[in-house]
């Protein structure tokens, strides 16, 4: 009797762990204990045809049938799971390929504009900056499910073609700007100072590595030059966030924080925050939104994990998110609370590398990443509700009050310059021989801490945090 390979485990599991002497001698079936005879032949189960255990045909037929049914059922379940995984994987794959293709075409267009010489050099430089931003926003290649072929040549080849296009664009822009700098002088009032809202004493020199125009600015910039590149579709909102914003239209008109706008100014004044100063109030509200929606909650557990972000990465990312929260809150004044979605999309992006030249991304972390995304959704939704039902100022007062209690010495708050002064005094007394190179010039370090701490880089910020100079 032929026993198929898929039935071996089933038969082995049915055989007795401690066989009797009659089983070993081939006198009784080891499966049903019936004696062998003329009507019941002994079929050897191994290890050799003459030694080991023996079974009868009825028992083996029954077990083979059971194993075949189990195998067929497992194959059907595997096929159904593979179909479901493939259906979910294909749109993810296509979105990633579309993003690679769009940014590649944009890189080729930038290289062409840099070579033709008709576009002014400053615009070429800004095109490269926006292109680099779009390239940075391209997430790592998504991981296919186990049932899909993991060696996807198109994903690999398209990513390689994008890298080649970026190299060509950088070379073309570098050549164009090198000759421009040789033959042209620095303008007295650079346009970027206005873009960055620089102080009056700004030297006009900037480190452009921290500039982030977002993933789509390069397509808008190219359109001004008559070049149209189809943009990839935006990532869909998380189902929970979409449901939360839809829910807001169906609820009653009760105010989330009644009378808060009358009480909050006095509380803020106690902490030295003038609620009538629009800039100060927006800054504090941005700090509060980042702390409540991102820093406080599930991120603590992610931070504490072995593969979690360092203190410096947390520091750099919080500064970057502060800027985005501030821009989103300002936009919400004219465009409504839905403008806060711009902050949510970055704060909850699991694929986006963090600020400060960090390679950390939430997708690689262990811990409650899903809970963090939901936490961000919930906290921002509440701020949107306050703005929708009580007005823009009430939303600012709510988050600014939170910042005053929880983060009054953070970047963006009125107490931040004093914290920097104290930190610099402690830093000057430390042995910095093993510190990152970015911390060698204390004057530059102080300027960066006051204006853009993430420019120092996550490694330098981590070294500072380890010295506890801000305590």
SSE order and pairing:
Blueprint: H1 8-14, H2 21-24, E1 43-48, E2 51-55, H3 57-116, H4 121-136, H5 153-183, H6 191-196, H7 217-224, H8 239-248, H9 260-270, H10 278-295, H11 299-304, H12 311-335, H13 341-347, H14 369-390, H15 392-406, H16 416-428, H17 442-451, H18 458-466
Helix pairs in contact: 1-3, 3-4, 3-5, 4-5, 4-7, 8-14, 9-15, 10-12, 10-14, 10-15, 12-13, 12-18, 14-15, 16-17
Question: How would you characterize this protein structure?
Answer:
With 471 residues, the protein is an all-alpha fold. Helices cover 59% and strands 2% of the residues. The protein is built from 18 helices and 2 strands. It has a two-stranded antiparallel ribbon with strand order 1-2. Helix 4 runs antiparallel to helix 5 (153-183), helix 10 (278-295) packs across helix 15 and helix 14 (369-390) crosses helix 15 (392-406). The longest helix is centred in the first third of the chain and has 60 residues, at 57-116. The chain is elongated. Mean pLDDT is 85; it is low at 205-210.
């Amino acid at each position: 009797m032929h026993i198929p390979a898929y039935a071996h485990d089933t038969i082995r599991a049915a055989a007795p762990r401690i066989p009797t002497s009659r089983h070993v001698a081939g006198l009784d079936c080891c499966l049903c204990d019936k004696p062998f005879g003329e009507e019941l032949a002994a079929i050897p189960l191994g290890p050799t045809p003459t030694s080991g255990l023996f079974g009868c045909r009825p028992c083996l037929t029954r077990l083979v049938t059971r194993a075949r049914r189990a195998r067929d059922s497992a194959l059907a379940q595997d096929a159904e799971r593979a179909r479901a995984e493939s259906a979910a994987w294909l749109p993810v794959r296509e979105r990633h390929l579309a993003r690679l293709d769009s940014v590649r075409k944009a890189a080729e267009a930038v290289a062409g504009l840099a070579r033709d010489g008709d576009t002014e050099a400053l615009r070429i430089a800004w095109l490269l900056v926006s292109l680099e931003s779009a390239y940075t926003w391209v997430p790592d290649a998504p991981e296919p499910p186990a049932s899909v072929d993991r060696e996807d040549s198109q994903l690999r080849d398209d990513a390689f073609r994008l890298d080649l296009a970026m190299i060509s664009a950088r070379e073309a822009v570098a050549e164009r700007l090198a000759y421009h700098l040789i033959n042209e002088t620095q303008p007295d009032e650079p346009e970027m100072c206005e873009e960055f809202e620089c102080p009056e004493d700004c030297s006009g020199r900037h480190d452009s590595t921290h500039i982030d125009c977002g993933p789509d600015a390069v397509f808008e910039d190219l359109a001004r030059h008559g070049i149209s590149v189809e943009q990839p579709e935006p990532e869909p909102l998380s189902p929970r966030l979409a449901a939360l914003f839809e829910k807001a239209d169906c609820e009653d008109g009760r105010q989330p924080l009644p009378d808060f706008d009358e009480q909050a100014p006095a509380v803020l004044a106690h902490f030295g925050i003038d609620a009538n100063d629009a800039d100060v109030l927006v800054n504090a509200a941005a700090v509060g939104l980042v702390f409540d929606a991102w820093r406080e909650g599930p991120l603590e557990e992610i931070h504490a994990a072995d593969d979690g972000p360092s203190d410096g990465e947390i520091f750099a990312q919080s500064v970057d998110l502060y800027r985005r929260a501030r821009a989103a809150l300002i936009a919400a004044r004219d465009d409504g609370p839905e403008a806060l979605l711009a902050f949510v999309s970055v704060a909850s992006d699991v694929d986006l590398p963090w600020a400060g030249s960090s390679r950390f991304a939430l997708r690689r972390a262990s811990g409650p990443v899903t809970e963090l995304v939901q936490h961000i959704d919930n906290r921002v939704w509440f701020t949107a509700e306050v703005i929708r039902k009580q007005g823009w100022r009430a939303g600012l007062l709510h988050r600014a009050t939170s910042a005053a209690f929880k983060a009054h010495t953070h970047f963006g708050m009125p107490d931040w310059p004093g914290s920097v002064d104290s930190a610099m005094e402690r830093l000057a007394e430390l042995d910095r021989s093993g510190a990152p190179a970015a911390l060698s010039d204390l004057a530059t370090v102080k300027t960066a801490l006051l204006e853009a701490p993430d420019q120092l880089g996550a490694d330098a910020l981590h070294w500072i945090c380890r010295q506890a100079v801000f305590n």
